[in-house]
Amino acid sequence: MIKEKHRLNVFDVWKQFSNECFVDELVKKQLSHKRYLHCKEVTNVCIKLAKQHGVDVHLAFLAGMLHDITKELSKEESVSYMQYYKEYLYLKAPLYHQYTAIIFLKQKYNFYNKKVFHAIMHHTLGTGTSKLAKILFIADKIEPTRGYDTTYHMELALRDLELGFAYVKADNQKYLKERGVFG
Ligand SMILES: [Fe+2]
């Protein structure tokens, strides 16, 4: 008889994902050191912006830490997860990770959080509508290891989330178009 794989219930899963050390280890295990550090920096910016704009700080932590969790999957794995999001297969492959992260976290860890998933699912294109989604998009683009001066972006985003988001998005769309990634 095949033993059924133990699945944690929703309360135990949330308990696991409430533990910052558990989430840290998960990200460390899944990604290269460089990308792990990027996630940590994104998380720091997310938390600063969340505190400033009245967003749940733990959800900001989760969005920041987990947003790139599937960025280093093999092409085969990535395409197989994308079978759940076939409607987005027309996009360029570098954008797939915002969708594959959702399936990965659901299937491998039984984790589901609507607010965190909305933020992750829109973080490459900045199409999210919630404050958390806007915060993650900004943080991903302006965290310090990006290697350019983002002091003004951060000041603006702290002062006014909508203005900061619009400013960072305009910069990012220019960057994506130049590299042929957009659309
Ligand atoms: Fe990122």
Give a brief rundown of this model.
The chain has 183 residues and is an all-alpha fold. The protein contains 10 helices and no strands. It has one domain: Orthogonal Bundle (Hypothetical protein af1432).
General description of the model:
The termini are far apart. With 183 residues, this protein is an all-alpha fold. The protein has a single domain, classed as Hypothetical protein af1432. Helix 3 packs antiparallel against helix 4 (57-66) and helix 3 crosses helix 8. It has helices at residues 10-18, 20-30, 33-53, 57-66, 75-81, 97-109, 114-121, 131-142, 151-159, 161-178. It is built from 10 helices and no strands.
Ligand kinds: fe (ii) ion
CATH superfamily: Hypothetical protein af1432
Q: How far apart lie the N and C ends?
A: 49 Å
CATH architecture descriptor: Orthogonal Bundle
CATH class term: Mainly Alpha
Provide the succession of SSEs. Answer: HHHHHHHHHH
For this structure, the CATH topology is: Hypothetical protein af1432
Helical content band = 55-70%
Structural class: mainly alpha
Tally of individual domains: 1
Strand-helix topology:
Layout: H1 10-18, H2 20-30, H3 33-53, H4 57-66, H5 75-81, H6 97-109, H7 114-121, H8 131-142, H9 151-159, H10 161-178
Helix pairs in contact: 2-4, 3-4, 3-8, 4-7, 4-8, 7-8, 8-10, 9-10
